Model the fold of this input.
Amino acid sequence: MDLKAIRRDLLDFFFPRRCPFCGRILGRELLCSDCEKALPYTGAQAVRKGAFGVCASPLWYEGAVRDALLRFKFRRDLGVLACFGEMMARCAAEELMGEFDAVTWVPVSTKRLRKRGFDQSRLLAASLCVDWHVQPIRTLRKISDNPAQSGISDAAARRANVLGVYECAEAQIVSQHRWLLVDDICTTGATLQECVRVLKAAGAPEVVCLTLASVRRR
Ligand SMILES: [Zn+2]
Done:
C-alpha cells in the first residue's frame, strides 16, 4: 500500500466521508445508493441550448441537489466536491467530449471571495479535472460586485445585472484553446452568456458550458 493510500485511509477514519445529499456515512463510494437511485438526473435533457451556446448539467437544481449545493456554497461543506466533480466529469465526457481542450470557470468577485473564503466554481472545475490530469486555467475576472443573480427572477433583469461585470484575464491563452466553462448552476443562462461573450470577444474559438445543476424550465 502506498503512502497516499494510507493517508487517505487515515483521513477517512478521522473524517468519515458522508453522502453529499443526505449526510449518511459512506465507505469508498461518493454517494449513498439511495440517493444515487433517487437524484433528479437530467438524463436525455442534460444538454441545454441557448444564447450561451450549449450547457451540459448532470442534475436538475431541485430537492436534495439544491440543498447540497447551498450547504457547499454557504456552509463551506467541501466534502461534497469529489462527488460533484465526478458527476460533472462524467457528464462532460458523455455530452461534450471533443468540443474542448482546456477548462476554465465563472469566477466570483474579490469581495465575495474574501467573504466566502473560496470560489465555488473554481473548486468544482478543479475537482472535475482531477481524473483528466489537467488544471483549470483562470481566464476571467469579475470586476464588479453586482447583486446576486439568485435574488432576481426576471430574465431580462438577470441579463442586465451581469452585463459588463466580467473581463478577460488572460487574452493570450484564451485564443489558444477551445474552452469548457464551468459554473455551479444554470438558471436562465445569463451569467454563462455574458462569460461566453467575453471569452469569444477575447479570441476564444469555441466555448461550451458545464454546470452541476440546471433549473428545470416549466
Ligand atoms: Zn444519500
Remarks:
- Residues 1-38 form one domain.
